[in-house]
Task: structure prediction
Amino acid sequence: MSVRHFGKPVVRNEDRRLLTGEALFVDDVHLDGMLHAAFLRSDHAHARVLEIDVSGARAHEGVAAVFTAEDLGDYWQPGPLLVSPPPIERLEFHQATQVPLARDKIRHVGEPIAVVVARTRYEAEDAVALIDVDLEPLDAVVDVEGALVENAPRIHEHLSSNLAAHVIQEKGDYQAVRDRATLLLSRRFLYDRGVSASMETRGVVADWSAKSGELTVWDTTQAPIPIRNGLAGMLGLSESQVRVIAPFVGGGFGPKIMMFYPEEVLIPWIAMRLGQPVKWIEDRQESFFATTQERGQVHDAEIALDENGRILGVHDVFLHDTGAYDPYGLTVPINSQCTLLGPYRVPNYYSEFRVVFTNKPIVSPVRGAGRQHGVFVMERLLDLAARELGMDCSEIRRRNYLSPDDFPHDHEIIYQDFAPLVYDSGDYLPALDKAAAMIGYDTFITDEQPRLRAEGRHVGVGIVSYVEGTGIGPYEGARVSVERNGRVHVATGVGTQGQGHFTSFAQIVAEQLGVEVEDVEVVTGDTGKFHWGTGTFASRGAVVAGNACRAAAAAVRGKVLKLAAQLLDVAEGDLELTGGAVRLMTDPARTLSFGALAIQANPLRGAVKPGMEPGLEATAYFGPERGSTASGVHAMILEVDPETAMVEIRRYVVVHDCGKVINPTIVEGQILGGVAHGIGNAFYEQLAFDANGQLLNASFMDYLVPTATEVPRVESDHVETPSPFNPLGIKGVGEAGAIPTGALFAQALEDALDLPGLEIVEIPLSPNRLFELIREAGTSSGGKRSRDNVE
Amino acid sequence: MEIESEFVFDGPRDTVWRLLHDPAVLAKALPGTRRFERTSEDQYEGEMEVSVGPVTAASFSVKIELTDKVSSERFTMLVDGRGNAGFTKGAARVQLLDHELDRTLMRYRAELQVGGRIAAVGQRLLDSVGKSMTRQGLEAINHHLQGREPPRRALIPRPAALALGAILLLLLLLAVLL
Amino acid sequence: MRVDERHSIRVTVNGDAFERSIEPRMLLSDFLRHELELTGTHVGCEHGVCGACTVLLNGQSVRSCLVFAVQTDGEEITTVEGLTPGIGVGGGAGDEPELHPLQAAFRDAHALQCGFCTPGVLLSLIPFLEENPHPNERDIREALSGNLCRCTGYQNIVDAVKLAAERIHR
Result:
């Protein structure tokens, strides 16, 4: 048996390049004669375009071209609908996708109006300042609820209202169980917007070679293959004429998905038109308007429970803010709708949502992609119900978990991948027990908290659960080949933005072929190397592309064995692959190196026999029928100063289940990063829009991404329920850390503050907002809560 | 955004009133004024340019209309300013009252809609720096009233939004001064 | 100073002398990246908050997006490329230059994911480690608080600094 690589904490193959500054990011691409683009963007959230005068900009020194919507001719088209609505009965959906440059109307601050191309970015920006635009401001739709009132300003003229979609999904009969519930609890929950804030902003470089008839595009995308295919269609080229490269990408977190952003669509067109390479790099301020954002939602939810705290049903009606356009369809609100059910048995569920257009930047998936909203609603309902029932917060969860016998579990509604929401596997109780033990949940409540309270300190504990649908289809592919130098080359289509694919895919392949991980070179995100697949999103990279790598490597293994058996004149079953060579198990001296085999497999004379293929290479695909459901429990102990509302997280524990683990170091890294992102979402980051749709904190000075002093040390551990839906048994982990953090903060803060009137039903909080809530709840801390009433 | 404050001028109401309507005086109180003129009885137009160190000059144009005018007592001013760093639109009400020792108390209240880059990254400057600079502008006029030249003040560069802050201040000054 | 005037500057970057004629408004970050093609220095926010563009100016950490290139006339600059002299030359396995101890610790402690913020983090922490050979967690977090990282949650960066400190002073 060769050395095992799968499941080991292998150091990453890609790190050397990243650490030494050698890794190529899009802004590092430098081409001869390259021009630079800058965009004129709207200062208004809602306005009619009356006149655009670009003559001053065109005349400016160094300017090669200026384009407005009018100059685009037939190329001016609304963007594609990226995800069509799932097949849900009675579903209503109104499509309105973004345009490359505003023509008649502006629908959010920062919407591009014109693009200047010049010798340098400095000159391009100088020229942008010389464009005169006459806009007639219109009243803006900012508030989600205000969007649907009668006489609200209409954002899209072709629609009869600002309603983008209306969806109802139902299971069982909620109204019927409502009548026999012991406890009915209803609340309104708010969850506001944030940005993904990847440290690298977006960027595009395009280079058209008229001689070869090939367009090369470097793009900070999470999905280079769909971008290639889409661009080819728009530009009237064959797919094979377009090569899209997503080199090293400085963080994705969702918004770098295949959005066909205006800049992504325009820069290649301009490069072709001018016959010169063109670069556009988003600046940080643009990023706050021009890159898609997280989602605002307002939920009116009710839970019905029996006398034992068992869930009879949940009723949830919510509004989802999609911003000015809805190119990403219903993925985000459907994630909220489905993920609300969590790890619980919910026999009756009624969920209805309306998606509304507002004069704000577009909403598309950001790490968690709406799942945290569902989790927030459900976890909060359970916490508040536990309070009513005098039950401990962990106990009410315990009583409602699905048990291992319940899998596969069909929730009888449709998920974002169009398949029924069926959980593949899970075992939730051990994760809860483990997290509770790690944080010392019981002794905290019985000993520590009373002691600290007696000292006048406000310290509280929280413990919450979540599930995450991951690893959805349709498919990914990989090509694995053994090179003449004995190294193994892997090409796959998914882009990579820091998830360690260069290493985890190498581990999967190394395991199959008996080579060292550093001898496996992985290429991702270059359509010139592999052009079948979709992309990295929805926590699917490792699951879907990982299994494709396994399949391709297994096929190469077959070829290696077959050829070596022939050459050594032995049976395949007598051979083993180890140390980059094939050897006879009974006589290890009889060995053939991979390099020698690769040369033999590609002969210069003789004939390749019918039915044989040259080379030690194979391509394979994997398409999971359904996604795999990861899960986890987060717990925290925090201290809050009620005078200042400043919060300090004292302990943070994560127990997660992502099935089989390829590389525990990488998995833990994903969790740690997700938690930091979640802490930002919960307590520091919020986009502040005024009543006119102006974003008031479009910089890192005012929009607070957590720093090393806000993010605590996270202790993590895992439980493992392999997924039966894929051969590696893995589940996705990319978004997990960020999903339950808001709910956890709310529970722990309520526990720490112990104010009878204090209920946290909104996220994000901030020290300011928490201060207001504390003040509203009154300063009396007389009514002691029933946390210690553990049944 | 809203600004509400008051200021005491060292002179009688009718003199203050006259100064507040003299484009030449106002232009001096507004740093970076390239052009500022009365286009009709109650309308003014101006162009401003601000350059801070090596940062490219940012320019904007402003149109102002006075309404609701009662000589030496009050007026309302409608402001429409736009430039490459953003825009402002709104109304300011200014009231002049007799004050002890033959001085004049000016009360002003402006409601402004601010948009674009100014709003996006200048938000924190809007309140603090904006108010203090408004005061500096008013003091400049007061110096004029006292027959002295206004002291020259250097704009101290801040870490970000240098030109932006300055433009913002100008808009605020315009809003409350005219 | 007019923007269209060009100024000639001489700087020493990673030990090599360069002379260039540039616009006075050109930022040091753009100068390094686009004039000298030292693209290891990354630009994350252009307003001095994220720290991705941190370089050493005469041995001190500075944010190259807040410095005009003309201000560095006659000065010495170190970028991430300067931490491993010889990088990018030749190629092939076996002859790769040795990583700086902090770089090696970053690799071993999984202190980077997308790696975009990493060069700036390294150049903020190297002078810190020189001044604080045995830092505790609190000191490290303080020193790191001027650098934003969206991927790692900082924990592994803190651990990498501890690891590097141990290895350097062992």
Notes: The beta strands of chain C are 7-13, 16-22, 54-57, 60-63, 76-78. Chain C touches chain B at residues 1, 3, 24-25, 47-48, 66, 68 (CB under 8 Å). The mean pLDDT of chain C is 92.
